[in-house]
Amino acid sequence: MKERLYNLMSEFNVIIQDIDCLADAIEVHFDGIVENYECEKARSLLRVYLSVIKGIHEDCEELYNKIDQAVLDIKYKRV
User: What is the reported pLDDT for 1?
Assistant: First the structure.
């Protein structure tokens, strides 16, 4: 059971890393639009994307930490 949870956490961590990469890519696009264009709609759209992705990232990290704590509780029989 613990091994399965560790494997799930490992897979979940990959998802968190992918979200970080996506946020980085959007920030690069945002910087390019700000530098090269005066398109407020595009800036607003990218700000929304970044906000949503960062919110998802925070939710994922919170869930990851809860799973990690549950695994530790099981490991040390604090359940």
Answer: 66
| Positions in the chain short of pLDDT 70 | 1-2, 38, 78-79
pTM above 0.70, yes or no: no
Buried b / exposed e across 24-62, counting CB within 10 Å, b at 16+? Answer: eebeeebeebeeeeeeeeeeeebeebbeebeeebeebee
Contacts of residue 74, defined as CB under 8 A and 6 or more positions apart, other chains included, come to 1, 2, 5
Structure tokens at 4: 């399965």
* CA 49 – CA 38 distance, rounded (Å): 18
Q: What angle do the packed helices 2-36 and 40-75 form, to 10 degrees?
A: 160
| Largest separation between any pair of C-alpha atoms in the chain | 58
With H, G, I as helix, E, B as strand and everything else as coil, classify residue 38: coil
